[in-house]
Amino acid sequence: MLYGDSVRVDFKGVNLPLLISFAGLGEEFNFGKTLGVYRVNVIYLRDLNHNWYVNGIPDAGNTVAEVARFLVLKIEEIRPSKVVMLGVSAGGFAALLYGCLLHADAILAFSPQTFMNRLNCVVYLDYRWLDRVVQIYGGDKTNRDFLDIKMLIIKSKVPVSLIYDSTHRLDNLHSKRITGPHVKHVTTKGGGHTLVQEIRASGLLTKLVEEAIQPG
Asked: Is the pTM of this model over 0.70?
């Protein structure tokens, strides 16, 4: 079922795992082929405004709080056995953000950002999306509370897997900030920011997804 251009829900039945997939910038709904082979429910989301999902998602809400409420209602409607959030890059940021806010059962974040605030972008010399940072700050002021999600992730205790190329300076930097007994770092030596293509071919992506949707 489609909700406009930004939300798609694939429902297969109650008491099955629910995966909530956040697409990266400019991408179609992510992981469709990978997730389509499993008996799971999936909510696919994408931020057509490229605001890292913090200024809302068309058809879901205009703020972080509204999008979180939308997802809560969908989870209650679907009645899953567990909830797993996943995403790539900006989608990885969103999976971490909403996964922690909603106390998901697991989060898979591939090459994620863990901050999009001005200060950290300057301190860590991450100038990749400065135009988007300006745009993000133009949204609802309440959303600015979620531009550095380090402490949110650390305090949440939600099981998190950060999957990234440790030789990519910025991806390594964003993920290494996040520590704790509930945080697992899965690193590669190559693949760059688009490592999902590589780990899909190697079978690692399938392994991670199957581990996440296992009962218990």
From this structure: yes
